[in-house]
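Justification of resources, computational component.

The compute hours requested in this renewal are based largely on the per-chain cost of generating structure records like the one below. Each record pairs the submitted sequence with a full structure-token output. That output is archived, and it is also reused by downstream analysis tasks.
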Amino acid sequence: MIINFCHSGCLCGQAFPFIKKGIETMYLSDLHTHSIASGHGTTCTISEMAKQAAARGIKLLGITDHGPATLAAGTPSYFRSLTFSPRKRFGVELLYGIELNILDTEGTLDLEENLLSRLDYAIASMHAQNYRSGTREENTRAYLNVMKNPHVKILGHCDNPHYPVDYEVLAVCAKEHQVIFEINEASLAPYGYRGDTTANNYEILRCCARYQVPVVLSSDSHGSDHIGDFTYAEEFVHQAMFPESLILNNQLPQLKVFLQTR
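The structure output for this chain reads:
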């Protein structure tokens, strides 16, 4: 199924209001969050994550714990059992996914196909623990190969300046394979560790606007503290005058259909 998210605007076309810190637009979904199963010292259970999401007005919460190649993260048996978990907690609809590790330029991922097929969706990301950055062409090739996997629906924090890529090429491929980009709150926030991602995020938005590729704002919350917190990501997309129609967080029916499209 091909889903068309239509808008004729571009980064310099239609103006959107600038959002100042402390003035929040309600976004209804957060698809990139991590529970205790991701390690990293995170101690929150899925129930605790859902409770916090409910308190912050989130209607659709994606639990995307790190794949098995991440130290102390979810095992294959964890992801096998995850699909039997309750689909609603504290009034919040839950999706169960994974943040996969990209392992090489061939697009090898760290969870086998039969388990991936049981999950609602996958985010694919580069992490230093599992992927040694290559040239711009090599890193781009890795993402291109990853997007051929029908379970990968979101490219995770590909704004990381330590992994240079060709965003124009990625956007064209994303359009073809029905993959979207995230604008990662943890990349843009002062507490982030990826360095200055501003230029890369502007380039992602420019290419997405040009090729009509949607994005989602993601908290990348490890634990419950930042669930639904898009303070910096929201400000960034509005300052860039990115079309609101290409931000899927509030388009819940379309978003769910998109994630189910293989």
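Confidence is low (pLDDT under 50) at residues 1-23. The beta strands are 29-34, 60-66, 88-89, 92-101, 122-125, 152-155, 180-184, 215-218, 221-222.
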